[in-house]
Amino acid sequence: MLPEKKGLHMSKKRDRELGMERPIARRDFLQGAAIGTVAAAAGGLPPALAAAAAQEKLAQNDPGYYPPTRLGMRGSHPGSFEGAHEVRDGDFWNHAEGVEDTGESFDLVIAGGGISGLSAAHFYLQAKPKAKILIIENHDDFGGHAKRNEFHVDGRTLLMNGGTMGIESPYPYSKVADGVLKHLGVYPTQLSKQCDDPAIYDSRGLKQAVFFDKETFGTDRLVTGGGSPYAHHERPALEAFLAKTPLSEAVRRSVVMIESGAVDPLPGLSSDEKKDRLSRLSYQDYLLQMLKADPGIVLYYRHYTDDLWGCGIDAISAIDCWGVGLPGFQGLKLKPGATDRMGYTPAGFAATGGSYTFHYPDGNASIARLLVRDLIPGVLTGRNATDIVTAKADYSKLDRPGARVRIRLNNVVVRVRNLGDPKSARGVEVAYTPAKGGGKVYRVRAKECVLASWNMMIPYLCPELPAEQKKALHELVKTPLVYTSVAIRNWQSFAKLGIRAVQAPGGYHSQFRLNAPVNIGAYESPHSPDEPMLVYMLRTPAKPGLSEREQHKAGRYDLLSTTFETFERNIRDQLGRTLADGGFDPARDIAGIAVNRWPHGYAPEYNALVDGNTPREKMPNLIGRQRFGRIAIANSDSGMAAYTDVAMNQAWRAVHELLES
Ligand SMILES: Cc1cc2nc3c(=O)[nH]c(=O)nc-3n(C[C@H](O)[C@H](O)[C@H](O)COP(=O)(O)OP(=O)(O)OC[C@H]3O[C@@H](n4cnc5c(N)ncnc54)[C@H](O)[C@@H]3O)c2cc1C
After folding, report:
1. Is any atom of ligand 1 closer than 6 Å to the C-beta of 642?
2. Cα(250) to centroid of ligand 1, in Å?
3. Which atom of ligand 1 is nearest to the CA of 139?
4. Please, which of 23, 384, 459, 527 could form a disulfide with 470 given CB 3.0 to 4.6 Å?
5. Are residues 382 and 410 both part of a single domain?
6. From atom 34 of ligand 1, which residue's Cα is the shortest distance away?
7. What is the pLDDT at residue 226?
8. What is the pLDDT at residue 39?
9. CB atoms within 10 A of CB 170
10. How far is the CA of 407 from the centre of ligand 1 (A)?
């Protein structure tokens, strides 16, 4: 057999072993079906356009329209971003058909149906209870990053967050954000006491583990007992763990020095002087240059910053890593707080936050659902903050003529302009088009508009903005990342191996874990290892060696060009190899996959390495979020922090800028 034929044969065989050809819940059948059900023609348009227009308006009204159960490529799913990219690429208006006036008029139009957009509607109605509001959202679901993944496996409903996991923040919730939670009946401290159920794993003694893969470390080996970036490991336990790893002697000594040593690499400097030095170098450089660790530690620690920043330790400042409690700083004996140079406490200082911590089984999608239930009666059943988890949703009620609030999914806002001079304008015109691109453009009018959408795209929507503001908005580059949810038929393999979570320094996903258990209302997390379970996996496509925001731009490109098939093959391979000794068979045990791809994920945050000495008033979010006539700007981007409370706070600010101007 020719070598290339042999390679093909081997990879086909491997695909069969992995179960690539097995029928599981992964492809987006529903979406495909909806595209086939073209509704009746709208009057006055050529038949093809009328059909397309009617279909776009009505997709969410189709019987059975329920995006949380769609699997395969989710997050920024196919069909959600192509229209926006046509606008970005500059030739949209050359090809766009004449703009069709829908004849609709609102008090407020909101671009973006994430937590910020939904909160903006809530705040506006507080001030103007009779207002009519339209929310336009490019995804097939509301909630933005607060996304619900819903699986049905062997008769059981399983929920997971496809994005935002929890009610938590580096800072205590503001009165405004707390007010939203209270209005919705959400009391996180109480819910956490009633509903969190760590005993499921604790009682079985399930531990953290690290998987060393042969491509990176020369051998496939799962080692339990280590790999928790924020846990303090006592020296004997750490040494026992390291002895089982394939790491070299030199790397092991360095890991012990970093994690349990008390080295002060900056003796003689004050705490403030030390912090200033830490704000000028990356965590990687701190470990290598200041602590003089063996270079081999990079492969072991490189993903320790993935979950908070979406990129590796080479692009995040040492002071930020100290702030969140990563190892290696004990000997410096630093006093709490940021440095003067940073101007304010960055969001990364989570350890000092004192915020709530609670998560719903579907993450903050429950907050989005609660907001929608409050804004548009009849969309969701139920009446309290616990029954929301299993509440039934009727998406056909989201956009009903005459309703106080309407949510129009699958459409992207492509232009917003003041009607007349921004200083004296009395209204705005908002144009939108089908999110999947290639469609007709529609126009509605409103007294005012909140752009609760991704800030870096706003210059394309509002080319009339001042140049300095557009430049600042473009700088608000979001973090690309992937939250993958995998349904497995049982979790016997985890129980047999005694593990609940795995760090994978060389893995396609850099960590994975069993779903965090919560029992709330009628929803029960799986208890027995014989029951189906969801596994959360994290992948960050950043490109080491560049600055953080350049890594994110490169990562976004990589993410958008990666097929679902590539993800699926890697997921199967990674879970199969890691859990092999527990008897896991990816072909048999995987029941469904949702890859929540977020090319525009976390809002950008202050990074001492990039933002250095920039005075607070010059930060891009402050310049970028200025009100422009009757158009105000919200979204977590405008608060430069990727947290739910920030999205709410920014919505409040934007709404009040309009109301008070
Ligand atoms: C993977 C992930 C995990 C997270 N985990 C947490 C967590 O555990 N706790 C926490 O507090 N925060 C978390 N965050 C951050 C949190 O999700 C956000 O701060 C918050 O939900 C953002 O809400 P938002 O409305 O500002 O933005 P988004 O949720 O991004 O919503 C904006 C919406 O606007 C839409 N949009 C964009 N452009 C247009 C347009 N032109 N027209 C129409 N619509 C448009 C977008 O598609 C999107 O749906 C996480 C974020 C991500 C990505």
Report:
1. yes
2. 43
3. 47
4. 459
5. yes
6. 112
7. 82
8. 30
9. 23
10. 16
* Residues in the chain where the model's pLDDT stays below 70: 1-10, 25-57, 339-354
CB 358 within 8 Å of CB 167: yes
Query: For 203, which DSSP code?
Result: T
- Per-residue pLDDT tens for 363-387? 999 999 999 999 999 999 999 999 9
Question: Domain total for the chain?
Answer: 2
602, part of any domain? no
Cα 601 to ligand 1 centre (Å): 7
Q: 174, 430, 453: which to mutate for ligand 1, most atoms within 8 A of CB?
A: 453
Q: Are residues 345 and 435 in the same domain?
A: no
d(CA 207, CA 227) in angstroms, rounded, equals 10
CB–CB of 285/297 below 8 Å? no
Q: Are strands 533-539 and 511-514 parallel, antiparallel or unpaired?
A: antiparallel
Domain match, 341 and 369 both: no
| Cα–Cα–Cα angle for 312, 318, 320, rounded to 5 degrees | 85
Q: Which residue's CA is the nearest one to ligand 1's atom 45?
A: 112
Verify that 375 and 418 share a domain, yes or no. yes
Kindly state if the Cβ of 227 falls inside 6 Å of ligand 1. no
Pick the last residue of a domain from 297, 317, 352: 352
The whole-number pLDDT of residue 25 equals 67
* pLDDT of the residue at 606: 85
What's the gap in Å between 318 CA and the centre of ligand 1?
27
Pocket test for ligand 1, best of 138, 164, 433, 436 (most atoms within 8 A of CB): 164
520: β partners: 523
Q: Rounded distance, CA 647 to CA 69, Å? A: 26
Measured in Å, residue 223 CA sits from the centre of ligand 1 at 36
262 with 335, same domain: the answer is yes
SS3 446: strand
- Alpha-carbon distance of 603 to 310, in angstroms, equals 11
Q: What stretches of 263-361 show up as alpha helix (H) in DSSP?
A: 271-278, 283-285, 297-301, 306-309, 318-323
Are 342 and 279 within 8 A, CB to CB?
yes
Atom of ligand 1 nearest to the CA of 479: 53
Task: Classify 274 as helix, strand or coil.
Answer: helix
State whether the beta carbon of 111 lies less than 6 angstroms from ligand 1. yes
Task: Record the tokens describing residue 412, joined without a space.
Answer: 């992207």
User: Are 243 and 345 contained in the same domain?
Assistant: yes
State which of 145, 358, 481 you would mutate to test the pocket of ligand 1, scoring each by most atoms of that ligand within 8 A of its C-beta. 145
* pTM of the predicted protein model: 0.93
Under a CB-based contact definition with an 8 Å cutoff, are residues 71 and 151 in contact? Answer: yes
| DSSP-derived pairing of the beta strands 167-168 and 357-358 | antiparallel
- The pLDDT value recorded for residue 53 is 53
Torsion angle of C-alpha atoms 323, 325, 330, 334, degrees rounded to 10: 20
Torsions phi, psi for 133 (to 5 deg): -130, 140
DSSP codes joined into one string, 362-386: TTTHHHHHHHHHHHSTTSB--SSTT
Give the pLDDT confidence score for residue 1 in this predicted structure: 52
Question: In this predicted model, what pLDDT tens digit does every residue of 62-98 receive, in sequence order?
Answer: 999 999 999 999 999 999 999 999 999 988 988 887 8
Q: Is residue 586 part of a domain?
A: no
Give me the DSSP letters along 609-621.
HHHTT--GGGSHH
